[in-house]
Write a structure and sequence with these properties.
During stationary phase, converts 70S ribosomes to an inactive dimeric form (100S ribosomes). It contains 2 helices and no strands. It has 58 residues and is mainly alpha-helical. The protein starts with 7 loop residues before the first helix and ends in a 5-residue tail after the last helix.
Length: 58
């Protein structure tokens, strides 16, 4: 049985989350389509919130 790739929007969210945790700027968003970009920014916001709340120490 083949493994399925994760959904593109899930992957965009995850990449944005990782960027937010890392403290990167939201200006580095690599996506140009509206759906993917909004998912990436949503993940970025959650990552930044988690980082500022002290959930992640880097």
């Amino acid at each position: 049985m083949k493994r399925q790739k994760r959904d593109r929007l899930d992957r965009a969210f995850s990449k944005g989350f990782q960027a937010g945790i890392g403290g990167r700027s939201k200006e580095i968003c690599p996506y140009s389509t509206l759906d993917s970009k909004s998912q990436w920014l949503g993940g970025w916001r959650e990552g930044i919130d988690g980082r500022l709340s002290g959930l992640f120490n880097k």
